[in-house]
Amino acid sequence: MSVHLASIAVLALAVGTGLGFMHYRALHLVTQQFVEGRAGKALGWQLARLALLASVLVLASWLGALPLLACFGGVLLGRWLVLRRVREDT
Question: How does pLDDT run across 36-78, given as a tens digit for each residue?
Fold first, then answer.
């Protein structure tokens, strides 16, 4: 594996972690908005959240399989961070 590909994979992991954190944090906020009866606003945030995730993963896929997998691994790491934070708050 070349140094260039490895550095892209590390960057994709970092981007994926940030994206995953924002994605799942936004999911928590969207859920709260649905519960509070603000369905219109929640639906807009939901669509934006999914569009951003899909866009970044498509961009990562254009770089190759390793960056895509690293980005997705970062998304899962971001999910883990959000779940850990939410569990500590309750």
Answer: 999 999 999 999 999 999 999 999 999 999 999 999 999 999 9
Tokens found for residue 45? 């945030």
* Amino acid at residue number 12: A
CA 83 vs CA 3, 9, 37: distances in Å: 33, 24, 24
Token representation of residue 52: 């951003």
pTM of the model: 0.87
Question: Which H/E stretch holds residue 37?
Answer: none
Q: Can you tell me whether residue 90 is helix, strand or coil? A: coil
Cα–Cα dist 77/15, whole Å: 11
As given in the structure block, the two tokens for residue 22 are: 């924002």
Task: Tell me the C-alpha distance between 67 and 12, whole Å.
Answer: 6
Nearest to 81 by CA among 42, 24, 30, 27: 24
